[in-house]
Design brief:
With 266 residues, the protein is an all-alpha fold. Helix content is 77%, strand content 0%. It contains eleven helices and no strands. The chain starts with a helix and ends with a helix.
């Protein structure tokens, strides 16, 4: 069975909200899709859906940060080197995982375990004094550390934005610069993942859901993602991330309890 349009819209809203809010979009998509599978007997492999919805939020980044992206191509080309350095760890980790053990990316148990880790990172970010370095002046070492945290966030439930922003502030960046660099880093990662998934779909010759539904879902995730980006930047400036930290911790406990109950019932 394939996902209905209504279910794709639910996943698109979840993706648009959680891609930029520091609560792990992949973790939420894994949990929501697993719930759908349990209650509607849907196919467990939704990798192509997740990637298409990610591409929708990729365009949110391109629109929201279009001025910064233009500066990257003109007056701030040094930052391109930093972005390459920060992307290398994700490539080193992501390609083998995608090729040899991609089932781990849809493991609901792992998502439940990683949500509290995201919560801990957000608590750290909430109480850590902001740095004073703007990302155009960051060092190679700072870029590599942020890149390592992005690579770790391949695990479902471990927020990419939360991890990289917390690491950026931890190595001395201002909150706004850490957020901007985090989302600029997402551009090559999401684009690369989308390309790999497109190649897989082309080779397999099948989709888990109609392409028209996917395109509508991508449009919804784009619109919702723009709103989420604006909200996150406002909350970062005001240092109000504790609510997301406790949300992630409680969500992780709830997911693990739910899966334990399902295992007990089986």
């Amino acid at each position: 069975m394939q996902f209905s349009l209504a279910e794709i819209l639910v996943l698109a809203v979840v993706q648009g909200v959680t891609e930029f809010l520091p609560v792990s979009s992949d973790g939420h998509l894994v949990v929501v899709s697993h719930w759908m599978q349990e209650h509607g007997k849907k196919p467990p492999d939704i990798g192509d859906v997740i990637i298409v919805l990610h591409v929708g939020t990729l365009f949110s980044i391109l629109v929201f940060y279009h001025e910064r992206i233009w500066r990257l191509l003109t007056t701030e080309r040094r930052v391109l080197v930093m972005l390459v350095l920060a992307t290398i760890p994700a490539v080193i980790v992501g390609l083998p995982v995608k090729k040899f053990c991609d089932q781990i990316l849809e493991n609901v148990w792992l998502a439940g375990a990683m949500f509290p880790v995201t919560g801990a990172a957000l608590l750290y970010l909430s109480y850590k004094p902001t740095g004073n370095v703007e990302y155009p002046r960051m060092t190679m070492g700072q870029a590599v550390w942020i890149g390592i945290s992005q690579a770790a966030a391949i695990l479902p439930g471990l927020s990419r934005s939360g991890s990289t922003i917390a690491t950026g502030v931890g190595v001395g960046l201002t909150r706004s610069s850490a957020a901007a660099f985090s989302f600029l880093m997402a551009i090559p990662v999401i684009a690369g993942a989308g390309l790999l998934e497109a190649i897989d779909v082309w080779q397999e010759g099948k989709l888990s859901t109609p392409i028209s539904h996917m395109l509508i879902g991508a449009a919804v995730s784009f619109i919702v993602g723009l709103g989420a980006l604006w909200c996150l930047n406002r909350w970062l400036e005001r240092g109000r991330l504790q609510i997301f930290a406790w949300y992630c911790i409680l969500l992780g406990i709830a997911v693990l309890a739910w899966q334990s109950w399902e295992l007990y019932r089986a």
